[in-house]
Design brief:
Layout: H1 4-55, H2 74-78
Length: 111
């Protein structure tokens, strides 16, 4: 039969074992997080460096063509807009809308 002393001893050992396992698991998890974070930062730095190098490569200078330069005439530039902003016609009702609106019946509904 268990005595008070053995019960307290059992609970104490259980708490110490749980605390120790928590400590070592937390240490392992933090080490994994740190290594993943370092790998992500390394990958981001490499990506940023590649993007920076791609942006700042020496590209041949573009010469402006007078025929397409519309600095003095903005209306001439608007006619060459690659994405006109015309609105598309909207149908009156979709196939899911009712043909007639629902109207509640007037009067006493409980008789």
């Amino acid at each position: 039969m268990n005595t008070i002393r053995s019960t307290w001893l059992g609970w104490g050992v259980l708490c110490i074992a749980g605390g120790g396992s928590y400590y070592f698991a937390k240490r392992s998890i933090n080490a994994d997080r740190a290594s993943r974070h370092e790998a992500d930062m390394r990958r981001k730095r490499l990506t940023e460096q590649l993007e920076f190098n791609a942006m700042h490569e020496t590209a041949p200078k573009k010469t402006q063509n007078r025929a397409t330069d519309h600095a003095a005439s903005p209306s001439g530039e608007a006619s060459e807009d690659p994405a006109p902003t015309e609105r598309q016609p909207v149908p009156e009702k979709s196939k899911y809308e009712p043909k007639e609106l629902y109207r509640a019946k007037k009067g006493d509904r409980f008789s």
